[in-house]
Design a protein that fits this description.
By secondary structure, this protein is an alpha+beta fold. The protein is 32% helix and 25% strand.
Length: 100
């Protein structure tokens, strides 16, 4: 018996703070996420630059948030952010430690 991975799509996006996005999902859920504590490492670290972070868009094929540097987050992760946030913060700390 495996885990169920919900297929979700982001359909609305607005930058509401330097590291925060308001998102709307295809099922009507709205969520504001502060990414500041997970923006570490080679892929996500550059998103600390407010101009790059503000360049977030919705990929029309995958329905997820993407940035020009190739960073993205799975829509199911974004929709269920409270479930994943602690693990992502721990990973971000590991990415920072690995670069030291």
């Amino acid at each position: 018996m495996g885990c169920v991975h919900e297929i979700r799509r982001v359909i609305g996006l607005c930058v509401v703070a330097p590291c925060s996005l308001w998102l709307m999902f295809d099922d009507g859920l709205e969520r504001t996420i502060d990414f500041a504590r997970v923006l570490r490492g080679e892929l996500y670290g550059p998103l600390q630059d407010t101009k790059l972070f503000a360049a977030a868009t919705i990929d029309p094929d995958a329905g997820t948030v993407t940035w020009p540097n190739g960073a993205d987050f799975d829509p199911e992760t974004l929709q269920n952010w409270p479930r994943y946030e602690d693990a992502l913060r721990k990973r971000a700390q590991e990415w920072t430690a690995a670069r030291s």
